[in-house]
Amino acid sequence: MASKKEALARRANRVRRSLKAVANGRPRLSVHRSSKNIYVQVIDDVAGKTLAAASTLDADLRSSLKTGADTAAAAAVGKLIAERAVKAGVKEVVFDRGAFLYHGRVKALAEAAREGGLNF
User: Fold this and answer.
1) pTM over 0.85
2) What is the DSSP letter of 52?
């Protein structure tokens, strides 16, 4: 029986393997969700560089949020990453939810990033 950590890693690798097959050189919008915060990065896998990043720990967001662990915080991070990615010249991305289900905070972040101008 695999541990919970191994099962999460296996699920994340399965999602990333399928994403890389359809990416066609587009950067990856990678999401990580913890119990207290949410983090997102736009990653160029070809060059191995992070093009833009945002989280609920950013100083400008932290003061305006009640908590970093709700859908409102995730939506704020989604809008912020969309602004930063567009400023970096990225419009098209592939959404990498990792081992997390597309539900709740992850879904709120994705929808806010779409509204902010990212296409995926």
Assistant:
1) yes
2) E
